[in-house]
């Protein structure tokens, strides 16, 4: 049994939005930050990150520009747009509501239902 | 939400615009990612080589993510709708693989595009004829517009001089008017010339540059310089295209003029049948023409002046200078119009012309729907291939686009052929010497564009409709095919198309028969003329009026008119005398209408036979009438059957006498004696005959003789009345010359004799068809005989092709439907079903379709006939039934061919066969 968790469908976009909300990042940086914050629990198929990034950019939730990475490599950096920030807030709240609900269901005991 | 839509649209637009750069960026981004990952892995202790390998594996398929990336940017639909070279090659290969369909498709589509382009070009020329104008936005015409008139009329010489002096907002004012004169440039050669008299100041407004020599210049307007003429291209060509023509003298009417220039072929002013330009000298017109309004005044808006400002100035001028007429009608106004729009609006009958184009576009749709049927039937036979490609991941858009690519090739080839044919036919001008709408030039750029648009629409219909039909529900059908059933089905849409088409084409052969009757009526006029028409030549005789009147052939001034007509009569008599002196000429006569041409129709009242007249409507009769010369009956070989013919005394005393024909005696008088009865006209023309206009009773005439039916009898009205006239009393008369031997060889001689009588006598064909002058009487009704025949031929070709295409389409769909049921038939036969019962089941559906189509077509025709749009003759009805039978046979044949094969084969084999 590993300590890795499967990514729930639809959560990748939320994770990317959160990652870039903390500062502008290139694609590989997004990947590292998600792994770092989750303590390595969330593993993403690396290439799959990019279609998601492009989709978010297409939706106007993130923005991109070419720049230089820490080790002097040309890289494309992504950052959150105001629309993205708004969406992140909504998604996070909705996520929290779902999690709370599921947690409550899972925590339910026969006594409570009686 | 709006922000999102905008963001997506912007992103899509950027991606589409940047094209391949999007892919290059993704490549670079992926490479940077893999390298950064590899560096991290090296830091964690892997060898550089191993690190790179691991990084690539962890990343996954670059191509796949690139593809997904494009999809995420909304580019997928674009990718699928994009043509590739491969599509074109595949399309071409499919066209070669199915040559039958390709040939039918190309031929049909080329035909539709040819018809569409030719129709568009001709209607465009009719509505927007070419006119040479230097600056179409600023060249204007000014004219008087009386109350109730919708466009400005002409101006008088006085008007023109006043405007030239006073109008400030329109500059370079010039004027022109049109006329006909005899042109002769060598002995025995003369031709009626449509010419334009214009002030040289107007010439620069046309923007015309001479091909040879010069145009008209200001000095030409002065009365003390030699008369000059600028020739048009066509007339210069017919004079032998002499490069040395400048400086030569030609005879124009009674005077001579020096040729100073030749205009190029594309110079058209004001309309294309005008072939020469001579200076107009307003100052020399004299007071008598001052009040006439035959001048058209043109000019250029002064710099910085708008047309509204010019109109304002002229309105003020009109208030000052124009007064109400003596009879109390309000004063006319002065109106300014752009000259080109003025020419266009006076020519235009846009709605009817547009509706013709609409019909032609409908023909294209008919053709397309048939080819689409064929394409679909073929695509259906490629089900296996299409299924395979779908299984390999081709989206429905890709498959549709491939069919579109194929149709585009088909349409492009067809458009090229169709346009080439249209170009050739227009230059050939349908075999006519010249016509109002055509000038022997080819297609214009707009028409080529229009045809390309038609081709693109056709390609889209041909590709998209069968494509969608084939790909819709493909996945579901794939499963069924695997399970042993399924296959394509023609749905309700095609059923409606087929039924509609049968109904629509039902009208074609029938209307062809009805149109044929017009041609036959024209032929009947010649066939039933009752005289040896091929021995006669005919022409219309006119005379230039240089001396007697200022402006027009039919003058307003009665004294001058009388002098003019007296001279005309004298010249006619001299012409008749000289012609009759020719050895090959047997007789010469004239009339207002000659045999083979539809004569006038008239309503008459007859007396009661006892000397008292009756005007009760019941005693009215409809007759054909003609005004004829003294020796008409002799020249037409018409013996006097009763009473007497016309005499010189009748002519001299102006006796009120008429001669009637046999049909008149039989039908109106019941065979009783006609001589001595009296009749009078109540009105001429169909309006009078059908009592749409009030009666205008004329004087009483006495019947003095009876002749056989000659010249006047037509199928509708055979009763004829002839009255006697002097040559000057009808203008212009038609002259008939009976000759011995081959008649057309006498044409140059007749023209030469006319020229020798007077240079101002004009010999012309009565319909003024350029290139025709003296024509044989059996071709006397050129337009009726050739025009209706040509239109009939075009209509017949169009109809035949449309019908053939329809039949092909109906055959294809019926045959395909039957073919689809071969497996079912095999099964039934295997189970021991009676083959005849199977046939009955198979035929039921196509026969029902044909039956409904024929019924709908018949009802539509019936409705049209009852609304008075057409009539149904017995012949037409027979053709309708014959065509219905043919349609049914085609359907039966289309069903029987594939089914017969199945009925013959071993049932087990049929079951094994791939359906």
Structure overview:
The complex is a heterodimer of chains A (114) and B (915). Chain A has helices at residues 11-21, 27-37, 49-58, 82-107, 110-113, and strands at 25-26, 62-68, 74-80. Chain A has 114 residues and is an alpha+beta fold. Chain A has a 3-stranded antiparallel β-sheet. In chain A, helix 1 packs across helix 2 (27-37), helix 1 packs across helix 3 (49-58) and helix 1 (11-21) packs across helix 4 (82-107). With 915 residues, chain B is an alpha+beta fold. Helix content of chain B is 52%, strand content 15%. Chain B has a 6-stranded mixed β-barrel. Chain B starts with a helix and ends with a helix. The relative contact order of chain B is 0.09. The chains are: A alpha+beta (114), B alpha+beta (915). The A-B interface holds A 26-28, 45-48, 50-52, 54-55, 57-60, 69, 71, 73-76, 83 and B 3-4, 6-8, 10-12, 25-26, 28-30, 32-33, 35-37, 39, 58-62, 64-65, 68-69, 71-74.
Write the layout of secondary structure elements.
The complex is a heterodimer of chains A (114) and B (915).
Chain A: H1 11-21, E1 25-26, H2 27-37, H3 49-58, E2 62-68, E3 74-80, H4 82-107, H5 110-113
Antiparallel strand pairs in A: 1-3, 2-3
Chain B: H1 2-18, H2 20-43, H3 48-59, H4 62-72, H5 76-81, H6 85-97, H7 99-127, E1 139-145, H8 157-166, E2 170-186, E3 189-198, H9 203-206, E4 212-213, E5 228-231, H10 233-238, E6 249-252, E7 255-262, E8 276-279, E9 296-301, H11 307-321, E10 333-338, H12 339-347, H13 350-381, H14 383-391, H15 396-428, H16 445-471, H17 474-483, H18 492-527, E11 536-543, H19 558-580, E12 585-591, E13 600-606, E14 620-628, H20 632-635, E15 642-643, H21 648-653, E16 657-661, H22 662-668, E17 678-684, H23 686-689, E18 700-707, E19 720-724, E20 734-739, H24 747-757, E21 761-764, E22 775-776, H25 782-820, H26 822-830, H27 835-866, H28 874-904, H29 907-912
Parallel strand pairs in B: 3-8, 5-7, 14-19, 16-18
Antiparallel strand pairs in B: 1-9, 1-10, 2-3, 2-6, 2-9, 4-7, 5-8, 6-7, 11-20, 11-21, 11-22, 12-20, 13-14, 13-17, 15-18, 16-19, 17-18
């Amino acid at each position: 049994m590993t300590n890795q968790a499967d990514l729930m469908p639809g959560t990748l976009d939320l994770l990317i939005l959160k990652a870039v909300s903390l500062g502008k990042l290139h694609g590989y940086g997004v990947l590292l930050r998600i792994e770092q914050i989750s303590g390595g629990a969330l593993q993403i198929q690396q290439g799959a990150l990019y279609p998601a990034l492009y989709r978010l950019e297409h939706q106007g939730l993130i923005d991109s520009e070419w720049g230089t990475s820490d080790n002097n490599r040309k890289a494309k950096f992504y950052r959150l747009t105001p629309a993205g920030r708004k969406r992140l807030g909504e998604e996070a709240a909705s996520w929290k509501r779902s999690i709370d609900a599921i947690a409550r269901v899972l925590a339910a005991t026969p006594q409570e239902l009686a | 939400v709006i922000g999102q839509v905008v963001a997506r649209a912007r992103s899509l637009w950027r991606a589409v615009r940047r094209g391949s750069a999007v892919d290059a960026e993704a490549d670079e981004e992926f490479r940077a990612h893999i390298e950064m990952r590899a560096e991290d892995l090296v830091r964690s202790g892997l060898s550089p080589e191993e690190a790179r390998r691991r990084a690539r594996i962890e990343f996954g398929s670059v191509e796949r993510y690139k593809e997904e990336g494009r999809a995420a940017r909304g580019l997928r639909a674009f990718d699928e709708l994009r043509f590739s070279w491969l599509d074109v090659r595949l399309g071409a290969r499919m066209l070669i693989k199915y040559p039958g369909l390709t040939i039918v498709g190309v031929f049909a589509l080329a035909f539709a595009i040819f018809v569409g382009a030719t129709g568009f070009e001709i209607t465009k020329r009719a509505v927007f004829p070419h006119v040479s104008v230097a600056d179409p936005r600023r060249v204007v015409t000014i004219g008087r517009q009386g109350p109730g008139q919708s466009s400005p009329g002409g101006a008088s010489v006085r008007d023109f001089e006043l405007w030239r002096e006073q109008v400030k907002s329109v500059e370079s004012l010039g004027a022109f008017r049109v006329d006909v004169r005899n042109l002769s440039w060598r002995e025995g050669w003369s031709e009626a010339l449509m010419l334009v008299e214009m002030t040289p100041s107007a010439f620069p407004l046309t923007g015309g540059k001479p091909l040879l020599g010069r145009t008209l210049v200001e000095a030409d307007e002065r009365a003390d310089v030699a008369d000059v003429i600028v020739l048009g291209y066509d007339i210069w060509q017919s004079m032998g295209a002499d490069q040395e023509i400048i400086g030569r003298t030609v005879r124009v009417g009674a005077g001579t003029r020096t040729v100073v220039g030749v205009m190029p072929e594309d110079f058209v002013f004001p309309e294309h049948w005008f072939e020469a330009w001579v200076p107009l000298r307003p100052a020399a017109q004299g007071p008598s023409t001052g009040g006439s309004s035959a001048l058209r005044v043109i000019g250029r808006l002064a710099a910085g002046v708008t047309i509204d400002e010019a109109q304002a100035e002229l309105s003020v001028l009109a208030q000052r200078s124009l007064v109400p007429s003596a009879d109390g009608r309000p004063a006319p106004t002065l109106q300014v119009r752009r000259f080109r729009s003025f020419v266009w609006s006076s020519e235009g009958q846009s709605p009817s012309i547009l509706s013709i184009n609409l019909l032609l576009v409908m023909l294209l749709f008919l053709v397309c729907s048939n080819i689409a049927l064929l394409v679909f039937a073929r695509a259906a036979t490629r089900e296996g291939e299409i299924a395979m490609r779908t299984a390999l991941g081709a989206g429905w858009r890709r498959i549709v686009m491939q069919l579109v690519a194929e149709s585009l090739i088909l349409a492009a080839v067809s458009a090229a052929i169709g346009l080439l044919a249209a170009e050739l036919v227009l230059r050939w001008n349908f075999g006519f010497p010249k016509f109002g709408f055509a000038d022997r030039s080819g297609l214009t750029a707009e028409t080529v564009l229009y045809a390309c648009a038609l081709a693109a629409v056709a390609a889209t219909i041909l590709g998209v409709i069968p494509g969608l039909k084939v790909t819709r529900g493909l996945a579901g059908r794939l499963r069924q095919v695997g399970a042993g059933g399924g296959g394509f089905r023609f749905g309700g849409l095609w059923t409606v198309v087929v039924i509609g088409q049968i109904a629509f084409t039902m009208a074609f052969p029938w209307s062809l028969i009805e149109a044929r009757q017009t041609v036959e009526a024209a032929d009947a006029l010649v066939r039933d003329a009752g005289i040896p028409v091929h021995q006669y030549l005919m022409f219309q005789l006119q005379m230039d009026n240089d001396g007697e009147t200022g402006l027009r052939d039919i003058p307003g001034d009665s004294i001058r008119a009388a002098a003019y007509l007296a001279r005309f009569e004298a010249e006619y008599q001299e012409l008749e005398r000289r012609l009759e002196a020719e050895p090959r000429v047997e007789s010469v006569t004239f009339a207002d209408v000659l045999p083979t041409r539809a004569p006038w129709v008239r309503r008459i009242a007859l007396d009661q036979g006892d000397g008292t007249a009756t005007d009760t409507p019941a005693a009215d009769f409809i007759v054909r009438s003609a005004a004829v010369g003294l020796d008409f009956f002799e020249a037409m070989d018409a013996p006097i059957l009763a009473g007497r013919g016309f005499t010189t005394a009748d002519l001299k005393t102006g006796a009120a006498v008429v001669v009637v024909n046999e049909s008149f005696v039989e039908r109106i008088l019941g065979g009783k004696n006609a001589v001595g009865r009296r009749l009078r006209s109540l009105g001429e023309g169909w309006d009078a005959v059908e009592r749409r206009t009030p009666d205008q009773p004329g004087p009483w005439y006495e019947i003095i003789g009876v002749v056989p039916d000659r010249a006047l009898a037509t199928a509708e009205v055979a009763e004829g009345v002839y009255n006697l006239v002097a040559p000057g009393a009808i203008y212009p008369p038609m002259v008939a010359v009976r000759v011995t031997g081959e008649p057309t060889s006498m044409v140059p001689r007749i023209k030469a004799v006319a020229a020798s009588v007077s240079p101002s006598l004009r010999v012309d064909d009565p319909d003024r068809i350029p290139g025709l002058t003296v024509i044989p009487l059996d071709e006397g009704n050129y337009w009726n005989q050739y025009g209706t025949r040509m239109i009939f031929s075009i209509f017949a070709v169009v109809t035949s092709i449309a019908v053939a295409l329809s039949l092909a389409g109906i055959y294809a769909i019926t045959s395909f439907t039957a073919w689809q049921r071969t497996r079912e038939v095999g099964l039934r036969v295997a189970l021991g079903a009676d083959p005849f019962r199977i046939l009955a089941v198979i035929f039921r559906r196509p026969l029902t379709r044909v039956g409904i189509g024929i019924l709908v077509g018949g009802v539509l025709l019936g409705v049209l006939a009852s609304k008075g749009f057409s009539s149904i003759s017995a012949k037409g009805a027979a053709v309708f039934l014959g065509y219905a039978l043919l349609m049914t046979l085609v359907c039966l044949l289309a069903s029987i061919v594939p089914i017969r094969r199945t009925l013959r084969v071993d049932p087990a084999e049929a079951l094994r066969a791939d359906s």
